[in-house]
């Protein structure tokens, strides 16, 4: 079982010590800068830890008892299964996404790695099955990979290398019983690299952030013909777009009901923006706000009622607790900063977060999965009701551990990725479960 997994201590260079204490400089996520190149070099080293073999865990779930699930600290979260990186195609790992086959309701995790994408059937979360690997274009490798889906297609981008956007027909996963090496169905080379992707399922537009196009702003493509990307717009009024979450709006500000709204996070631009992108030829900035001491406004996700936005700042100091920043977005053209929820659970760095119901699921690097109650978001109070810590040795700042968590699988199952370590499937229980 997992108790037998041997972990070796990673050697830490002077650069990593600096990052652990103060966080990377504000331009660290932009590989076009010297800081970004230095960070990438360090991440390529640290994201592939020397303990790789690991131990597969499958079968009966491991219940969280007295604060532990096997060797992992936990609170109200049971461990269902674990696949080590060595069983997922090797390399490092970063983002991931999910796909549900509309024909048979099978569920899949699309697991982004430095040198490809792994496809995992997680229909039975106690016994996930690795189906195979889609190699990166031309054998390139990058610490930053992102993936999203539209209809039955996956779109894959990588930063700092010439990957373009690979497009893969997910129907190929049906009926796979033997591990395969897959090939892409198309590759878009109208851009070289990209940092993050988002797809509005309702409109068929792909939003690309941090690419070599559009001055690293927000590049928009029409993908309604899924194997073809047609340039639709460029928003480059900020120095950088790190990520955008785009929806057909159905929140409390009824003036914008049905409009296509982008929540844009500008990284070193230190702004959280709300954009009306309905008219691609006339993108309008509705709000552009920030919080005190902003350093790298990384990503955020709205509460389920769309009254508040929970935002993470990747390089702000976490001494005394890792903060989340809350904005009131009840009026899209008058967003305002409410305050920060300062956690007392460790100095780890918050990364991608997603909201389901009254719970916000946060990937928190060395803090693993953290689950926050959003009921008091109006007061910037986000009590922690559950967690699953993939790095038992430390809750300090730093950039190993969980990059991404996905709370969208059936029966409350959450996928938790650990950089270069593997894929955990867990289930929140009790007060941590969505209600």
UniProtKB/TrEMBL annotation:
Signal peptide: 1-28
Keyword annotations of the record: Signal
InterPro entries registered for this protein in UniProt: Choice_anch_B (IPR027589)
One GO CC annotation: extracellular region
UniProt xrefs under NCBIfam families: choice_anch_B
Protein name per Swiss-Prot or TrEMBL: Choice-of-anchor B domain-containing protein
The organism of origin for this protein: Actinoplanes regularis
């Amino acid at each position: 079982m997992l108790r037998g997994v041997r972990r070796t201590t990673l050697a830490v260079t002077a650069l990593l010590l600096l990052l652990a204490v103060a966080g990377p400089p504000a331009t660290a996520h932009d590989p076009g800068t010297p800081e970004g190149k230095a960070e990438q070099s360090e991440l390529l080293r640290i994201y592939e830890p020397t303990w790789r073999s690991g131990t597969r865990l499958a079968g009966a779930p491991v219940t969280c008892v007295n604060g532990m699930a096997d060797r992992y600290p936990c609170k109200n979260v049971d461990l269902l299964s674990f696949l080590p990186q060595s069983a997922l195609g090797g390399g490092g790992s970063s983002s991931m996404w999910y796909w549900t086959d509309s024909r048979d309701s099978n569920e899949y995790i699309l697991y982004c790695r430095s040198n490809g994408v792994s496809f995992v059937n997680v229909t039975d979360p106690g016994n996930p099955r690795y189906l195979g690997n889609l190699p990166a274009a031309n054998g390139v490798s990058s610490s930053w990979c992102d993936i999203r889906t539209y209809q039955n297609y996956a779109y894959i981008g990588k930063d700092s290398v010439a990957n373009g956007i690979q497009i893969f027909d997910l129907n190929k996963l049906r009926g796979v019983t033997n591990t395969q090496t897959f090939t892409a169905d198309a590759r878009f080379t109208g851009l070289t690299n990209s940092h993050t992707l988002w797809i509005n399922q309702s409109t068929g537009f792909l939003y690309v952030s941090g690419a070599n196009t559009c001055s690293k702003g927000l590049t928009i493509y029409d993908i309604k013909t899924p194997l073809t990307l047609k340039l639709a717009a460029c928003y480059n009024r900020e120095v950088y777009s790190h990520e955008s979450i785009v929806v057909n709006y159905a929140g409390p500000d009824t003036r914008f009901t049905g409009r296509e709204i982008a929540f844009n996070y500008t990284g070193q631009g230190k702004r959280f923006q709300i954009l009306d992108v309905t008219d691609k030829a006339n993108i309008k900035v509705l709000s552009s706000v920030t919080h005190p001491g902003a350093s790298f406004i990384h990503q955020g996700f709205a509460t389920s009622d769309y009254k508040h936005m929970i935002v993470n700042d990747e390089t702000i100091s976490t001494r005394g607790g890792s903060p989340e920043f809350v904005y009131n977005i009840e009026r899209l053209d008058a967003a305002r900063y409410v305050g920060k929820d300062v956690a007392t659970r460790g100095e780890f760095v918050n990364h991608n977060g997603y909201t389901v119901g009254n719970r916000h699921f946060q990937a928190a690097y060395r803090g693993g999965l953290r689950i926050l109650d959003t009921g008091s978001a109006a007061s910037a109070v986000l009590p922690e009701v559950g967690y699953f810590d993939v790095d038992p040795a430390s809750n300090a700042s730093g950039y190993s551990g969980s990059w991404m968590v996905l709370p969208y699988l059936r029966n409350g199952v959450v996928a938790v990725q650990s950089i270069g370590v593997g894929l955990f499937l867990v289930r929140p229980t009790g007060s941590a479960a969505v209600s």
